[in-house]
Design a protein that fits this description.
The protein has 52 residues and is mostly loops. The chain is elongated, with a radius of gyration of 21 Å. The protein has one helix and no strands. Helix content is 8%, strand content 0%. The longest helix is centred in the middle third of the chain and has 4 residues.
Length: 52
């Protein structure tokens, strides 16, 4: 029995998106505006939501 994998493609030149692009708070360097000083803290509500 011979098994052939058709979808096998060498991906040597694949580049992945840096986490700092999707989440600016994960960028290296000092604290960015709008980012919480403790990155592992629970999310907090920025302002109250008034419907209507």
């Amino acid at each position: 029995m011979v098994v052939v994998q058709v979808d096998a493609v060498a991906r040597s030149h694949v580049t992945y998106i840096h986490p700092g692009i999707l989440d600016p708070c994960k960028r290296p360097g000092e604290l960015h505006p709008g980012c919480h000083p403790n990155p592992k803290s629970a999310p907090t509500q920025a302002n109250t939501y008034n419907r209507g």
